[in-house]
Structures are given as C-alpha cells and as structure tokens.
Amino acid sequence: MLELAGIIILGILAQWFAWKFKIPAILPLILIGLLVGPIAAEYLSEDGTKWIEPIWDNDKQKGLFPGESLFNFVSLAISIILFEGGLTLKRSEIKNVGPVITKLITLGSAVTFFGAGIAAHFVFELSWDLSFLFSGLIIVTGPTVITPILRNIPLKKDLSAVLKWEGILIDPIGALVAVLMFEFISVGGDSGFTKTALIEFGKIILFGTTFGFTFAHALAFAINKKLIPHYLLNVVSLSVVLLVFVESEIFAHESGLLAVVVMGMVLGNGKLENIKELLYFKESLSVLLISILFILLAANINIEDLLLLYNWKTAILFALVVFVIRPIGVFLSTAQSKLKTKEKLFISWVGPRGIVAAGIASLFGSKLAKQGVEGAEYITPLVFMIVLGTVLLNATTARLFAKLSGVFLTKSEGILIVGASKVSRLLGHYLKTNGRHVVLIDSNLSNIERAKELGLEAISTDIYSNTLTDNIELNDVGYLIALTGNSGINKYAIDKFGAEFGENGSFRLVTREEMLDENNNPAEGLFSSTDDYNSLTEVTRKYPSIQEIEITDIAHYKSLIEQTHNDKDIVPLFIKKDNGELDIISSQEIEFEEVGKTWKLVYLGKPFDVETTETI
Q1: Cα–Cα distance, 249 to 458 (Å, whole number)
Q2: How far apart are CA 524 and CA 392, in angstroms?
Q3: Could you report the per-residue pLDDT of 352-390, keeping only the tens digit for each?
Q4: Which of 121, 166, 292, 534 is the most exposed, fewest CB within 10 Å of its CB?
C-alpha cells in the first residue's frame, strides 16, 4: 500500500516540479524511478532491495505486479495516452505541412530504423536482429515530451504542427516495427519470416484501422443521440477505448495502438458535442498514468543493466542517433518542402523519445532476456539511455537552439480572438487575408463551425479551462482580442491570458457603462470608446464588410476618427502601414508623428463620404 501511494505522490510532485521549472515531466519522473529502484537497491537500502519493486519477486517476497501484469498495465495505459493524443490531431493543422509529416513518419522512420540498427550493431556488437529491434523502438519521438518542450518556445504554427503530428502519429509505427522485429527474433529469423512479417503487417493495419474507425463512429453516434447519460460519459468512453484496444489485440497482436490512435483522430475531427469534456478527462487521466508508468518502468531497471552502458560506446551510439541519423532523416524527408533550412535544423535537433519507447522496450527486453537471447539485456537500458539523453538535451537546449537557428519568433504576430460571433469572423477573415495567423475560440459549436467554413482556424474551448496554455500551435500568438458580448468574460480573458498571449497587446471591447462615461476609458479598450459589442453587432448586420481608406496626413486621420465617433455606422479597426503591417486601434486611439505614403484606415461599416473627407 505504501509503495502504491508513494508512486502516485512522487509522480504528481514530479509533474508539479516540471510545470514549475518548465521542463518535460519525463525527466524528473525517470530520475525518481531510478532513485527508488536500482540506485536505492545498490546504495541506499540496508537489505539491498529496491524501495519500489515493480515486479513481484518470490525470493524477496516483495513487488507490486505478479508475472506479466506490469506490462499488461503498461500496454493499457499507453493505449489511453495515445487515444488522448489522437483526439488532439486536427486535419486543418496539417493543411500546409501534410506531405512533410507523411515523409517524416515513413522515410524518416526508415532512415532511423536502418541507420540506428547499423550503428548499434557495429558500436555495441549486438546481433543484427537485436540491433534492429533497438532501432525500431527509438523511431518514436513521443508527444508527452514534445509538447512541454515546445510550449515555451514561440515558433511558427507550421513548425510546431510538424513536430506535434510526428510525435503522435509515429508512435504506432514505431510499435509496429518493434513488434515485427520481436516476432522475427521469436520465430528464429528463418526463411519464413518475410511471409510472417507481411501477414502480421497486414493484420495490424486491417484490424487496427477497422476497429478504430468503427468504434469511433459508434461512440459518436451514442453520445450525439444522448444514449449515454452525462455523468457516465467519461467512464463509458474510457471503457470503449480499453475495449477497442483489447479486441484489436486479440485479432492482431500490437494492432491496439493503431486502433486507439485512429479512434481518437476520428472522434477529434468529427462533430462530437462533448469532445471538450472527453479531452479534459483524458488529459487528467494521461497525466496520472504517465506519472505512474515512468516511475515504474525506471524502477524496474537493475543496476547491472545501467553498468552495461558505463563505457565510451554509449556516448558514440547516442551521438550517432541524435546528431547524424536524425538530421539525415529530417533533411531527406523535407527535401522538396516549403520549410527553410533553419526550420529543418530545428526539427533535426528536437527529437526526444517518450513513453511508448520506454514501455515497449521494457516489455520486449524482459521477454527476450527470459528466453535466453544473447544481448537482450542491452535493449531496455539502451532505449532508456536514448530516452533520458534526448529529453535532457532537448529540455535544456531547445530554446537556445531555436534562437541560434533563427526560428525563435522575436515578435509574435499571431492574433487570438476570444469569441467567434459574426463580428469576430468578419475581423478574422480580413486579418487572415492580410497574412496574419488568426485563431478564434468560442464555446458555441455553431460559431466555431461557421468560422471553419470560412477557412478560419477555430477552437471550441471553455475560456475558464487551461487547455489554451497547453496548445503549442498558439506559440506565435502575441495579440489578444476579447470580443464577446459578455463583459465579464472579456475582462477575465485579459486578466488570465494577457501575459500568455498578449505580449504585444491585449484588448477588449468597452462596456456599456464605460461607453457612457467619458472619464472611464480603459487602457485596454478596443477600437473605439463609443462602440460596445451591441454597436459592433448592429453595424455588422447593416454593413457586413470591412473597408479601407487612404490617409493623407495626421490631420486627415484625426478627422476620419472624429467622423467615426459621430457616425454610429462606422467603427475604426486598424491602421494599415506601407509594408502591410496592421496596428490595432484602441479606444484611446493611436498617436503617431507622421503618416506613411500609402497608410490606410481600416474600418467596419458604411463607406466614408469621400468628397466630405477630402474637403475637411
């Protein structure tokens, strides 16, 4: 009981520590696991036993999981983690980088598989089959470690999307390759392996995609038709995920990972009313499972396994995998893409391995060691070395390397609009047309769908949740505009997310009370001190278009602003400069000393009377 409680308590403490110091949680989790496991047994424990013994030991009469039950638990936990990752994958995110991701998880995986396999064979003198089992295991990059590393680095959305999608989609591919190699070793590598591999591959693809697709639609149908009561929604969904994983595994071993990823992707990209609640629940569950898993798997390693790596060969293999093989795979995969060389370099540098690699390595390494396969004792510690080394390297250097390579955004130009009403959609469409990255958020699914129909990036979320701060695709956002009809929500959005997303400015609509009081003009007031949400909505209803008019000089600009104050059907929005840059007009207006040759006032509503403006 003490051990079980200790794992959970230590795991959550590690998660808090990681959050506080902005590092991937996997780093303190593995270190804690090693401390309470092999390090404690060798240096701290009086009787030479681990403080936490994951697998039951009959001789010591100590342990948590008997027989293979630890690895059964690991498999089920990984399925839930991958399902949660699949839920976050959106087709719209890969519109510009789809071919790059496809090549990274195919060609890039092949380069890693053959390159790391050859390296392991010649450096550690492992057999060819064990070498390629090792290389199959380290193909995966791991979404659980990519996200925290990228969360605090402002990058272009496309670059973040490439790394995020690669991390999640490559997990089942790495698992598939590792399974095929394990099958090869198990059958003795005879001449029938080619046929066996093809059959296994076909079964995994067939049953994985079939079960995932079918059960996703069945669950979505049940949820949308209200066949599942609200209080059972999360636990029923969890049960279905586990059912899909197990059923798929029964028909084809290791097809379960693919099945749950497909299921998550189908649900995440479908029209599911309760998708937000599922995400919140699965995210919390994933945090708990990851905390438990990494401590258990690290504690399960023995000190003898770690000492196997205490030589120069380990450093050589790590350097080859990280600094040679990964860059070759990335540059080959992105050869004809729109990505710049500096972006390719950054992708090459960031490739931390995660939970799937560690979990499957522990499972297969233990099984092969029990079978008496020579060299099998190297598999688990080698993979853990790559996991720990890449996470430590990327967690400490990714931000610095982003700056050195030139992908670090010194000024975040993206715009986050809170609210996806008609006014917001009109503004968002104009901003996107003028080359700005715009994201609309709203809890109203109808508004979100209408925004997406216009080609806008829109997220259905609750402003009171923390999901926005975890979204790495918002790393380039530097402007926050609160544009809802609820003044309380607008103020809350500025207070909560201003520091995170309003680096260059946070704005909200003035309230009715502020609009009627000339002496109460807030510094963050948006557009005009005489226009609130109702005014904007009415102008949008009557004149649903955004206009531009050239500004000749400062006096002309001030006269135009004065006209907008006197005409309720005109609302000033932005100043468009010579280079196309847009400055948001606040309720306190913009002050400048001179006007560029082709500056324009961007406004919402009816067209200005050009003759009148020219004579003023």
Answers
A1: 36
A2: 40
A3: 887 777 777 877 777 787 777 888 888 888 998 998 899
A4: 534
